[in-house]
Amino acid sequence: MGKFKFSPLDIFLMFLGLVFLVVDIVLDVLAVVNFYQEKSYGSLFLLILLLVGSSLLVQAFSWLWYRYEESERDQEEKSMNQTKVEKYLSRSHIKLLHVLQLGIYFRHADVVEMSLCSACSQVNDPEGFAVYMIHDLSMLRLIETFSESAPQLVLMITIIMQQGQLDPITGAQC
């Protein structure tokens, strides 16, 4: 069985992705505040509906995949492929994280842990568990992109066309 090791470029790109995730959240909050200050309640409602709907969809997929992964692994393999983050949380705690819309951040913590452990030492990972976790996270990001960003882009372009001017926050959202 081979050994898996993250390169420094992989770790840099992973952290860059986390930075862009935080920037996306900040821009979403700024757009909501901007619509509220402009008293554009229709656009505010649609934006919140898109953001909440997308988050619910991503969290639902994350929880369903987590449950599926858990049922597929037997106990011996599960203890071998669990991260430290997973070991400290019970199934009910993980479910609570998903209900509170924090499940995707739990997955990010798992990936960060696996990548840092892999970079510091050569982790024996014969099944490619770290790569599998990254693929799950990438698929969840893709689902979020198409369920949130595409409709949000249409909303922002419609607002720009109706107003005839480009607001800095609205422009940053596009």
From TrEMBL:
Say where the protein is mainly found. membrane
Membrane-crossing segments per the record:
12-36, 42-66
Q: Which InterPro entries match?
A: XK-rel (IPR018629), XK-related_scramblase (IPR050895)
Per its UniProt entry, which superkingdom is the organism in?
Eukaryota
Keywords, A to Z, come to:
Cell membrane, Membrane, Transmembrane, Transmembrane helix
| N-terminal signal peptide | none
**Which Pfam families does the record cross-reference, listed alphabetically?**
XK-related
One GO cellular component assignment for this chain's record is: plasma membrane
Annotated compartments: Cell membrane; Membrane
Q: Which GO terms describe its biological process?
A: apoptotic process involved in development; engulfment of apoptotic cell; phosphatidylserine exposure on apoptotic cell surface
Topology within the bilayer: Multi-pass membrane protein
Q: Does the keyword Magnesium apply?
A: no
**Protein family membership:** Belongs to the XK family.
Please report the name of this protein according to its UniProt entry.
Answer: XK-related protein
